[in-house]
TrEMBL record:
Belongs to the barstar family. It comes from the Bacteria. It comes from Kitasatospora phosalacinea. InterPro entries: Barstar, Barstar-like_sf. Gene3D superfamilies: Barstar-like (3.30.370.10). This is Barstar (barnase inhibitor) domain-containing protein. It holds the Pfam family Barstar. Signal peptide: none annotated. Residues 303-368 form the Barstar (barnase inhibitor) domain.
Amino acid sequence: MRSEEHAGWERDFPVRYLLVREDVHEAEEDVLWGRCAEVEGLFADPPPLPREVLTLRGCPRESLLVRRVTDSAGPVRLLGDGMLSIEPADPSNGGPHRSWDLEDATVLAHRPAPGDPGRVDLVVGTGVREDDHRGSRRLPPQPRFDLWFPSLRGDGPSGGCRSVDGLFAPRPQRPARPLHLISCEPAAPLLALLRRPLPQEGGPVTLRRLDRHGRTMTGYHLVLDTVEARPSVLGAALVDVTVTDPGDDRPTPAARAVWEVWSEGVPARPGQWARFDAGGRSEWLRLTRAGRYGPDGRSGGTYHLDGRHATDRAGLLLALGEALLGPGANYGTCLDAVADCLCGGPSVVPPFTLVWHHAALARRALAGHVLHHLGGLSYFEETVNLLREHGVTVVLR
């Protein structure tokens, strides 16, 4: 379904959003559920997970996690974000693999494990996000509990334990954050949903944001399990629809100002992203995925990268894409994607020359962005190495 086909209506205000049920199997065309002028409550930081207390029982004393926590000279209490994974102790036995995200983990206490001087019990306060495993929720017959905290180690598990108290308790629920679709013109599927008794269980749809040309800028998933409608504040035989609990797939407040720029169309002037902070630049980089494409497989030539604002990861990738393909274009939203572009497709491919101006600014700014899984190189160094390994002549100035 082309968004441009549904962007026009005979009213004094434009269509800015479409509600679309997308066909994930691509066997049929996407279905329009509605279109509306505005959305209130869309931009929001993700709420913190409710705090819980877990006891990690039987952590080996020799593990990095326990050594750092119990170090008398400088014990670590703030572990930050991490992950708990449960896998079969013997991979050849098979069995389910499960994982949980641990948000802002803090060590509350530690003590020797009863009856085992070689192990320690850690009491941790954290937010817990359950895995979305849709199969069996059972554990392997002989489970192995691994703990991953990038603040301690970025290239592997930080430690492990024998069991976790509190992990399988009922999770506290986050408060719902309603979304309001302003001046909505429902299509037949949404009208049918609104006529059902609450809760309706309408399932997921995609909220597409349009620019002034009717082109889709980006999209977010909404859950239409409970929706209510009333006459619109703007009249015009439209309705305002409240989605009681649409889920947490939302842009952050930093995205709002970026969307205002992109709502005029794909940016045509270089460097418009430079004034935004890290959150805004990340959103700009996200929008470039639907931006203009370059020529298919063009090689050769010299390109100039303006490095004055390539001072964070998103800024570096934006400056690279702009240098090679122009404003609003995408040459990868991470280094793996950059590698894909270097190998072909609608992009500039090696051999070519990239003159990186003000390279020292990026080198200094990204010195602390170390990629431990790539030998401890900084993000700047790894980017330069990646380009050169794929046949790009990189000139640093």
